[in-house]
Design brief:
The complex is a heterodimer of chains A (115) and B (109).
Chain A (H helix, E strand, L loop, with lengths): L4 E3 L2 E4 L5 E6 L6 E7 L6 E7 L2 E5 L6 E5 L5 E5 L8 E8 L10 E2 L3 E5 L1
Chain B lengths: L4 E3 L2 E5 L4 E6 L6 E7 L6 E6 L5 E4 L2 E5 L5 E6 L8 E8 L4 E3 L3 E6 L1
Parallel strand pairs in B: 2-11
Antiparallel strand pairs in B: 1-3, 3-8, 4-5, 4-9, 6-7, 7-8, 9-10, 9-11
Classes of the chains: A mainly beta (115), B mainly beta (109).
Chain lengths: 115, 109
């Protein structure tokens, strides 16, 4: 079965640079979520999109932005990178059914290292 | 403060032993998921529970959702080294999805 695809899997950037992470949800999934996971921590919710519109916002810094495109893939744009942004970034997708969210399926993650 | 608290945070047991991981909150969830995560990989969904009091079994894993839909437990019978990993509960309040604090399980052969 098709899973969530994330690219790149690894990314190394310098401080103050920008980075773009991409997420391709499972086919027919209409909702995408972004999470940040630091070493030894649980995933922290950043932002989510449903049908190309932002649906929820978590602890996403103002330096970050994201969007969902017409083909439902999503991109997380990160600017003015800081050392503390080094983490695993996960994308998850789900299929919204009525008023209830379906379970989320996670991608393999992008490991971002800021030097 | 964390909306979902898991206990224990770390657990190291011998192969063949049984264990229970708890996921507790003061909030009510419309659904609750359990995930297992390997280092450097994405969380893999194990189960979703949606009804208060629901019990689901997945081979040697038994998941229970509390009657009030505020807590859940994961019981593993006869643990195996392959069960080693980080176990995360995650709850949907209807507005947002929250992860628990995680339980790192090590099963020693």
């Amino acid at each position: 079965a098709a899973g969530v695809i994330q690219s790149p899997r690894h990314l190394i950037k310098e401080k103050r640079e920008t980075a773009t992470l991409k997420c391709y949800p499972i086919p027919r999934h209409d909702t995408v979520y972004w999470y940040q996971q630091g070493p030894g921590q649980d995933p922290q919710f950043l932002i989510s999109f449903y049908e190309k519109m932002q649906s929820d916002k978590g602890s996403i810094p103002d330096r970050f932005s994201a969007q969902q495109f017409s083909d439902y893939h999503s991109e997380l744009n990160m600017s003015s990178l800081e050392l503390g942004d080094s983490a695993l970034y996960f994308c998850a997708s789900s299929q919204w059914r009525g008023r209830a969210r379906n379970e989320q399926f996670f991608g393999p993650g992008t490991r971002l290292t800021v030097l | 403060t964390q909306l979902l608290e898991q206990s224990p945070q770390f657990l190291s047991i011998q192969e063949g032993e049984n264990l229970t991981v708890y996921c507790n909150s003061s909030s009510v969830f419309s659904s609750l998921q359990w995930y297992r995560q390997e280092p450097g990989e994405g969380p893999v969904l194990l189960v979703t529970v949606v009804t208060g009091g629901e019990v689901k079994k997945l081979k040697r894993l038994t998941f229970q959702f509390g009657d009030a839909r505020k807590d859940s437990s994961l019981h593993i019978t006869a643990a195996q080294p392959g069960d080693t990993g980080l176990y995360l509960c995650a709850g949907d309040t209807g507005n947002q999805f929250y992860f628990g604090t995680g339980t790192s399980l090590t099963v020693i052969p």
